[in-house]
């Protein structure tokens, strides 16, 4: 997973873009954190290969890239959503598209409806459109998990004006297990301190360097104020953030030095 996610970490070279959204959802609804899973060794990724669809669906990556290009042109923020989607997929049950599964009568609470994903995770319609185009070109060939990975890679490409251009290994299989409590348990919470963040990444076989580098993905996209305001992190008298940064992102302040990547 380190390799797959590290690709996205190249986003650190992107211009700093943080936008705010006043309305949101409350992480206060989170249940108290349970014990973290036992750290497992990083998967080798040996079964994945660059050009995995070269024979079975030669245009697969081109098709996904075209759909993502159009979506990011319409709204660059969707690109940020697609990058986050790969993280939220991979951290829960591995990179298996479990984040995409809709509720059913037998599984009314999939990952998609968990607090970290609902309502903030965006870009599902782009994955649906890419998958629909792929099904027309080569039915039943390309996994949804690979579509999520290609789309995140392509979002990085377009948001960086082509500076981030990596070859994404493919060959992931789609999973069928998707439970909202797993997302709550596996995904790091916005309230986590450094110890908790490090432990959360260690549980996935990732180290502190991975944590720092991958956090660079927050160079793009938005956050709802509800993730930051309640714990006083943006409050001038209690914040331990760099004062200039805290002032810049404090609710009610005019946006400064931002590109329209909301
Ligand atoms: C280190 C632990 C992490 C925490 C606690 C965290 C938390 C968050 C939170 C609270 C938001 C705002 C969601 C919202 O209110 O809409 C967010 C947004 C985002 N996160 Fe993370 N995140 C983490 C790691 C990552 C990683 C590893 C990636 C990708 C490699 C990532 C990519 C993003 C992106 C691109 C956005 C913006 C999404 C959008 O604009 O729709 N995050 N994250």
Automatic annotation (TrEMBL):
<dbReference type="GO" id="GO:0140825">
    <property type="term" value="F:lactoperoxidase activity"/>
</dbReference>
<dbReference type="InterPro" id="IPR000823">
    <property type="entry name" value="Peroxidase_pln"/>
</dbReference>
<keyword id="KW-0732">Signal</keyword>
<feature type="binding site">
    <location>
        <position position="94"/>
    </location>
    <ligand>
        <name>Ca(2+)</name>
    </ligand>
</feature>
<keyword id="KW-0106">Calcium</keyword>
<feature type="disulfide bond">
    <location>
        <begin position="57"/>
        <end position="138"/>
    </location>
</feature>
<feature type="binding site">
    <location>
        <position position="98"/>
    </location>
    <ligand>
        <name>Ca(2+)</name>
    </ligand>
</feature>
<keyword id="KW-1015">Disulfide bond</keyword>
<keyword id="KW-0560">Oxidoreductase</keyword>
<dbReference type="GO" id="GO:0006979">
    <property type="term" value="P:response to oxidative stress"/>
</dbReference>
<feature type="binding site">
    <location>
        <position position="89"/>
    </location>
    <ligand>
        <name>Ca(2+)</name>
    </ligand>
</feature>
<dbReference type="GO" id="GO:0020037">
    <property type="term" value="F:heme binding"/>
</dbReference>
<feature type="domain" description="Plant heme peroxidase family profile">
    <location>
        <begin position="47"/>
        <end position="262"/>
    </location>
</feature>
<keyword id="KW-0349">Heme</keyword>
<dbReference type="InterPro" id="IPR033905">
    <property type="entry name" value="Secretory_peroxidase"/>
</dbReference>
<feature type="binding site">
    <location>
        <position position="111"/>
    </location>
    <ligand>
        <name>Ca(2+)</name>
    </ligand>
</feature>
<dbReference type="InterPro" id="IPR019794">
    <property type="entry name" value="Peroxidases_AS"/>
</dbReference>
<dbReference type="GO" id="GO:0005576">
    <property type="term" value="C:extracellular region"/>
</dbReference>
<feature type="binding site">
    <location>
        <position position="188"/>
    </location>
    <ligand>
        <name>substrate</name>
    </ligand>
</feature>
<keyword id="KW-0964">Secreted</keyword>
<dbReference type="InterPro" id="IPR010255">
    <property type="entry name" value="Haem_peroxidase_sf"/>
</dbReference>
<feature type="disulfide bond">
    <location>
        <begin position="90"/>
        <end position="95"/>
    </location>
</feature>
<feature type="binding site" description="axial binding residue">
    <location>
        <position position="218"/>
    </location>
    <ligand>
        <name>heme b</name>
    </ligand>
</feature>
<keyword id="KW-0376">Hydrogen peroxide</keyword>
<dbReference type="GO" id="GO:0042744">
    <property type="term" value="P:hydrogen peroxide catabolic process"/>
</dbReference>
<feature type="binding site">
    <location>
        <position position="96"/>
    </location>
    <ligand>
        <name>Ca(2+)</name>
    </ligand>
</feature>
<comment type="function">
    <text>Removal of H(2)O(2), oxidation of toxic reductants, biosynthesis and degradation of lignin, suberization, auxin catabolism, response to environmental stresses such as wounding, pathogen attack and oxidative stress. These functions might be dependent on each isozyme/isoform in each plant tissue.</text>
</comment>
<keyword id="KW-0408">Iron</keyword>
<protein>
    <recommendedName>
        <fullName>peroxidase</fullName>
        <ecNumber>1.11.1.7</ecNumber>
    </recommendedName>
</protein>
<dbReference type="InterPro" id="IPR002016">
    <property type="entry name" value="Haem_peroxidase"/>
</dbReference>
<dbReference type="Pfam" id="PF00141">
    <property type="entry name" value="peroxidase"/>
</dbReference>
<keyword id="KW-0325">Glycoprotein</keyword>
<keyword id="KW-0479">Metal-binding</keyword>
<keyword id="KW-0575">Peroxidase</keyword>
<comment type="similarity">
    <text>Belongs to the peroxidase family. Ascorbate peroxidase subfamily.</text>
</comment>
<feature type="signal peptide">
    <location>
        <begin position="1"/>
        <end position="24"/>
    </location>
</feature>
<dbReference type="InterPro" id="IPR019793">
    <property type="entry name" value="Peroxidases_heam-ligand_BS"/>
</dbReference>
<feature type="site" description="Transition state stabilizer">
    <location>
        <position position="84"/>
    </location>
</feature>
<feature type="active site" description="Proton acceptor">
    <location>
        <position position="88"/>
    </location>
</feature>
<dbReference type="GO" id="GO:0046872">
    <property type="term" value="F:metal ion binding"/>
</dbReference>
<feature type="binding site">
    <location>
        <position position="92"/>
    </location>
    <ligand>
        <name>Ca(2+)</name>
    </ligand>
</feature>
């Amino acid at each position: 997973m380190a390799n797959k996610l590290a690709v996205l970490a190249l986003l650190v070279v992107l211009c700093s873009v943080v936008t705010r959204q006043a309305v949101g959802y409350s992480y206060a609804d989170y249940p108290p954190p349970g014990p973290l899973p036992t750290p497992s060794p990083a998967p080798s990724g040996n079964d994945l290969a660059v050009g995995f669809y070269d024979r079975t669906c030669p245009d697969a990556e081109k098709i996904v890239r075209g759909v993502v290009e159009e979506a990011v042109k319409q709204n660059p923020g969707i690109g940020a959503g697609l990058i986050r989607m790969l993280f939220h997929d991979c951290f829960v049950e591995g990179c298996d598209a479990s984040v995409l599964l809709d509720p059913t009568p037998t599984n009314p609470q999939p990952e998609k409806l968990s607090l970290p994903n609902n309502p903030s995770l965006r870009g599902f319609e782009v994955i649906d459109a890419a998958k629909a185009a792929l099904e027309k070109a080569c039915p039943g060939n390309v996994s949804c998990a690979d579509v999520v990975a290609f789309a995140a890679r392509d979002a990085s490409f377009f948001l960086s004006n082509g500076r981030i251009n990596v070859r994404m290994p493919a060959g992931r299989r789609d999973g069928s297990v998707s439970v909202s409590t797993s997302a709550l348990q596996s995904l790091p919470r916005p309230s986590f301190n450094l110890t908790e963040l490090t432990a959360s990444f260690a549980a996935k076989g990732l180290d502190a360097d991975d944590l720092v580098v991958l956090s660079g993905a927050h160079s793009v996209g938005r956050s709802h104020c509800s993730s930051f305001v309640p714990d006083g992190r943006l409050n001038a008298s209690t914040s331990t953030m760099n004062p200039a940064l805290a002032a810049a992102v404090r609710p009610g302040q005019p946006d400064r030095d931002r590109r329209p990547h909301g």
